[in-house]
Amino acid sequence: MKNGQLFRAFLLGSIGVGLLGGGALSGLQAKAASDWPELAHPVAKDPAMEARIAEIVAGMTLRQKIGQMTQADIRSVTPDQVRKHYLGSILNGGGAWPSGKKQAAVADWVALADAHYKASMTTDMKVKIPVIWGTDAVHGHNNVFRTTLFPHNIGLGAAHDPQLIGRIAHLTAKQVRATGITWAFAPTVAVVQNPRWGRTYESYSSDPALVRQYAIAFVKGMQGNLTAPDTTIASVKHFIGDGGTWLGKDQGETRATRDQLIRTHAPGYFGALEGGVQTVMISYSSWTDTGMGKPHGKMHGNRELITDVLKGRLGFDGIVVSDWNAVEQVAGCTRTHCPQAINAGIDMIMVPDDWKQFIEETVADVQTGVIPMSRIDDAVTRILRVKMRTGLFDRSPMPAAGAEADMASDAARATGREAVSKSLVLLKNNARSPLPLKRDAKILLVGKGADKVTAQLGGWSLTWQGDETDDSDYPLADDMLSAIRKTLSDGGKVDFSADAVGVDVKGYDAVIVVHSERPYAEMKGDILYPDTLRHSARYPEDRAALDRVSGKGVPVVSVLFSGRPVYANDLINRSDAFVAAWLPGTEALGITDVLFRGADGRKGADFKGRLPFDWPGASCPETARKPVLFRRGYGLKLAKKSGLGRLPEDGVATCPAIAE
Ligand code: GLC
Are residues 337 and 486 in the same domain? Predict the structure, then answer.
């Protein structure tokens, strides 16, 4: 062993031992772990399966074991490399498609999945271990062309309908399996505390109880009995506290007491575990225990919460997977070398590109004792357990002929449309509101996002950011313009103007103004303090368009596409009705089903949505005297005119300094 290696072995060994803490829980750790509930687990260990797994693990080389713990991105690995390096898993990050083709056909996805699967089954191992492919199917199988995309989680939260969530999860699993993939990185069970976070729309609600209900329903809907050909395994994420970071900063510091961690941020995990979830993805965020004044550092290095709590106290026996290169954020780690994360209890490392180096460095860590073989064997055992539970060892995961129809089946489109209708929240419905609109009405439709499906989709839609796409990428979808056209009867008409410049509203029965955010994902969607939450500050074009049509004697209905609740008092004041539509996905007919009367002229579907989060009453809620305009749970029905008076419009341009 070279000196350098010796020194590193000593250095990391001390870290290793420190992290392992000698194995037994200290008194304080045992007390801390007992603060967490004991959960029932629907998937019991099968003794025969466990014996088979132990026999396989015993016959594996170290390199084969580390290969099994490695997850690489399809842009950086070939099937032959999967075979040669014994890789256990692959993934397609947002914007990764077969052959780099955005409009790749389902058959292309299946062909690539089949190539990787076959490669994994032709290694020189005594017992071949099938590779497993994971994908971010977070609102339908959103990486795949011509797929029905459901509302993002924030809209589903507004629907307050766990049964619907279970159906959407199963429809999503069918879409994923139709492409030869068997693992979806969903559900996100973040309980968002600050809508500044760029991932607010991936959260169902700030209500932990609703998130727990949804987690159970989603996991059961997606995983079924684990072996059916139209189910996938789920990945509850991101453990733990991703939605609670300071000022909503993505991958930031979650400041919470242990009790807040358990009561606010953990219920989604309790639900997912009770639903039998087979994988848990760790959060980029860090945790500072504000009760003890103790910074615990990045979650990816938190042995107490991952091993003592999640695996120990909560009894999770599936796979703990890291996030995308996330281990590099652990003190002392790089993306290819992080014994701290593995010793903390992470079983599979998502190291999309530099996976070869990761394997080499981790093999060395085991050889030098920095990572005990027992930890490796536990990780590999868990990986094999999940693969075996799903039948992956027994048969190819490739879809039956005709499964492609599941991508945009009648059931998927109808359920998507239903979910959209149930997600809409009516925030204002004044006496002059024209809702529900007549189907023979003359409508002026305004707004930059009114004729663009991409305004309805948000991030994680064909690409990671949901950008670099247009309506030609969604041939089966409806935007607001096409949905209205399909809804109007012969006597009706709709004219469209993106900005309403030079448009005379006279002669129209109503104006529908669509306000929208540009699509974003993760940190690119953060509204960094001290920027305000005012929609008009970030998108002045929407307010300008509204000003051109408002107060002209024709009633105005505003529809807002957003990934978060925003400060919109000025827009609400200039509208006679105001609808929060969140990020509804491809089925915009679900919107017109509610905005318009039924085909028989009777009232259409009524509004059912209720706010999943508080709605801001100030540009800077953190420092405002009245931070909330509408409380979580608020939502009007058509029959109830709101009589909402003129709202105050704070002119705050930049939020005041705040003590860090
Ligand atoms: C991302 C996200 C995670 C996703 C993973 C793979 O960074 O944090 O939610 O599953 O990478 O795309």
Answer: no
Residue 234 CA to ligand 1 centre (angstroms): 14
* Protein residue with its CA nearest to atom 3 in ligand 1: 323
Distance CA 486, CA 75 (A): 40
Distance from the alpha carbon of residue 281 to the mean position of ligand 1, in angstroms: 9
Q: Which atom of ligand 1 is nearest to the CA of 324?
A: 11
Residue nearest to atom 8 of ligand 1 (CA): 323
Q: 323: CA distance to ligand 1 center in Å?
A: 6
Q: Are both 433 and 352 inside the same structural domain?
A: no
- Give the per-residue pLDDT at 27: 63
Whether residue 327 is found in the same domain as residue 455: no
Per the structure, the count of domains in the chain is 2
Q: What is the pLDDT of residue 4?
A: 45
pLDDT single digits (tens) 13-45: 333 333 333 345 566 656 667 789 988 888 999
Is 557 part of any domain? yes
Q: Calculate how far, in angstroms, residue 241's C-alpha sits from the geometric centre of ligand 1.
A: 15
Domain at 298, CATH number: 3.20.20.300
Say if residue 11's pLDDT is above 50.
Answer: no
Closest C-alpha to ligand 1, atom 1: 324
pLDDT of residue 32: 66
Mean pLDDT of 85-91: 98
Same domain, 96 and 239: yes
32 belongs to a structural domain: no
98 and 216 share one domain: yes
Closest CA relative to residue 167, chosen from 192, 140, 146: 140
pLDDT digits 0-9 by tens, 491-528: 999 999 999 999 999 999 999 999 999 999 999 999 99
The answer as to whether 379 is a domain residue is yes
* Residue pair 571/578 in contact by the 8 Å Cβ criterion: yes
Which pLDDT score is estimated for 604?
A: 79
- For ligand 1, atom 6, the nearest C-alpha belongs to 93
On whether both 507 and 556 belong to a single domain, the answer is yes
The string of DSSP letters for 468-527 reads S--GGG-TT-B-HHHHHHHHS-TT-EEEEESS-TT---TT-SEEEEEEEPPP--GGGG--
- Determine the structural domain holding residue 121 and report its residue range: 8-15+56-405
pLDDT digit string, tens, across residues 358-402? 999 999 999 999 999 999 999 999 999 999 999 999 999 999 999
Residue 531: inside a domain, yes or no?
A: yes
642 exposure class (CB count in 10 Å sphere: 0-12, 13-18, 19+):
middle
403 dihedral zone (left: phi>0; alpha: psi -120 to 50; beta)? alpha
Residue 237 CA, closest ligand 1 atom number: 9
Pocket probe mutation, ligand 1, options 323, 346, 463, 464, max atoms within 8 Å of Cβ: 323
Backbone angles phi, psi at 596, to 5 degrees: -110, 155
What residues flank ligand 1, with Cβ below 6 Å? 93-94, 136, 185, 237, 323-324, 522
pLDDT in tens, 530-549: 999 999 999 999 999 999 99
* Pairwise CA distance, residues 466 & 483, whole Å: 21
Q: How far does residue 95's CA lie from ligand 1's centre (Å)? A: 12
Structure tokens that stand for 479 in this block: 């935007």
Indicate which atom in ligand 1 lies nearest the CA of residue 326.
Answer: 7
pLDDT value of position 42: 87
CATH number for the domain harbouring residue 429? 3.40.50.1700
Residue numbers annotated as active site: 323, 522
- pLDDT, tens digit, 9 for 90 and up, residues 460-499: 999 999 999 999 999 999 999 999 999 999 999 999 999 9
Q: Which atom of ligand 1 is nearest to the CA of 136?
A: 10
